[in-house]
Sequence to fold (828 residues):
Amino acid sequence: MDFKDLRVNGQRLQGSLEEMAKIGGTPGGGVQRLTLTDEDKQARDLFVSWLKELNLEITVDEMGNIFGKRPGRNNDLAPVMSGSHIDSQPKGGRFDGILGVMGPLEVLRTLHENNVETERPMVIVDWTNEEGSRFAPAMVASGVWAGALERDWVYDRTDIGGKRFEDELIRIGYKGTAACKKWPVHCYYEYHIEQGPILEMEGKLIGAPKGILCLHWYDIYLAGEANQVGPTPMEGRHDALCAAAEMILKVNQLPGRMGGNMVATVGEIQNYPNSRNIIPDKVHFTVDIRSWDDEHAIKAWELVRKDFEDIAANRGCPIKIEETWRVEHSPFDEKRVQLVLDSADQLGYSSLHMVSGAGHDASYMNQVCPTAMIFVPSIGGRSHVEVENTRWEDCEAGANVLLHALLQSANEKL
Amino acid sequence: MDFKDLRVNGQRLQGSLEEMAKIGGTPGGGVQRLTLTDEDKQARDLFVSWLKELNLEITVDEMGNIFGKRPGRNNDLAPVMSGSHIDSQPKGGRFDGILGVMGPLEVLRTLHENNVETERPMVIVDWTNEEGSRFAPAMVASGVWAGALERDWVYDRTDIGGKRFEDELIRIGYKGTAACKKWPVHCYYEYHIEQGPILEMEGKLIGAPKGILCLHWYDIYLAGEANQVGPTPMEGRHDALCAAAEMILKVNQLPGRMGGNMVATVGEIQNYPNSRNIIPDKVHFTVDIRSWDDEHAIKAWELVRKDFEDIAANRGCPIKIEETWRVEHSPFDEKRVQLVLDSADQLGYSSLHMVSGAGHDASYMNQVCPTAMIFVPSIGGRSHVEVENTRWEDCEAGANVLLHALLQSANEKL
Fold:
């Protein structure tokens, strides 16, 4: 059989996704499968049972990452690898993460039933806790594997109920014995929904991100003066919520002022005492700035930081600013990105060279080996919500691109 | 003895206030004595013991209002009345409410030790749950007494833990047997801290509000579209928090645009899902508008409501507006207000004819009988906070004004 004609089974891929969507399925049509919960365990068990059907060599490491290895002709060569995550956001969707696990599973099934041998071994992976919504931060298990994070620090992360990461990992039976430590990988492909509207807007089927945007997080704390609203004249008020409102709009206007190539968002706000007849005296809010250009993002922050300080001074609301987290933009391996574009091309799919605004386990893998991603369109650009959706045909197309990118990579002798 | 020379005992008043401040005293120097809690009971018990020392006729009604009656020469005449409330805000101050109970107590003590007889009986009162911070809304017990609210509706109010008002009233032993129903009152004076900065700014000692501002409450609900912030371009976002931020600033600018004579405040906001990397898709916030001029307040609302609708349309964020509560402005009895001003004058105190921005039990009493209030300065205008403060000399001066307003009123034969 000519490998060029090989295709995944779209029906089977859809079936796997639908079966997974039942685990933690929500009335709103989404999925809630928070990391290290009973739902996560149930989905992992199902995944492992599917790996066993393919006679893969299964390893669970001490972070709960699940690897399934398919031997190659020459097992001394570094394997090619693909995977993503089984966990979801609270009230998340049926595609985020799981598509990138069911995709390579479908690839391996296709190779299996066609008795296709590859030169190098192939590894499928489910990374623990990509979302970070139960245990912050995100992508911790690929982070530990890549050597960027400390295992014991992650073990001690607690959820909102005070439960430890390690204890919950043990509880669901997925604290393995293998060290969570990188080993040589020839290259890594992560298949994922786009989570944005660009592919849909551009009318393209396959996205090949050249890398992941930089990510800068800030925490802003404002102080005001609480008083009964009725007897307190407008003049001389120190209303921390009004100061925050001005700042939120400055953040929203920032990409326009900087001439694009970035997004800037305030997603979270806490207001105190949060009583309708008391002037707010304490506000905390977050700022999230992302760009392909790290310097551009920092210049934007410096501009808006100056605005914040002016607004705080004008309103007499002392401000405290924390620069919480900065991750530089992560350019993927050009050759691997090109291979994704070429594979799409050979399959007759339209494609787009783009960027990824969201972080993925691929960010950490990119520190270990040549990495690329494959995106398929999110309907209406919706993600991290129950109505998140992607056409089944598009899921199949992305899996075919993954199949061919993996096949070609797995047959590279050097 | 010439009544003109009669003065309260400032030391004793201070002592009573200090003893009350121990009950529910907070580390920050304030008081937390929420209605119908153990602290409220303890303060009520102390208050009742003090009433007993003066041989007053004590009545507790079915709303827990405590009345202490001092006979006059002619007990067929309607009594004069004064009081306020013992309950406090969460982390409130040492003066709000309690000054208006300890003030008339000090007046009665002064009359008692000087064997002063009055024509009419005099009644001191502690109204249950003025604050409304544990059981909403505020001023319920004077409201029931005045016939403006239903007793059983108030009984069924629940706190945040689901406890019923009536059950808690029984628990602390203050559900009395007397009907909570108005009876003839000659006039009512309520002594209170100003809770605003006007007296301090004007350099005046005694405030005589001509009435209480109108109070309009609104609840605004905005919908947006939640999405992962990284992959979602700024164009086409429907960010409910940005829409709310614009609206909050419009509310803040409203008094300036309307040419004053009002205050407008957003005190409360809830944002969903309130996650730093998801665009907010649901926001609720409150609007509080107060003015002496009801029409002015309604015109202001119409103006800002139009702004809200424009902002919602521009941002593609559907808006739902609830007009939650409207209380008309409440002008006090001119003759009683003048008597407060005259009493201050005769005592050599500076005074100011002003308005009350905050609501008080006096609002409901104003529906029953001629009513006036006596204000003393709040240092820095601060109230509903632990640092709320008033000079002891000013507390004494206000009590002297109350003494003379009550004395003169209690000796009116008609």
Observations:
- The CA atoms of residues 275 and 318 of chain B lie 21 Å apart.
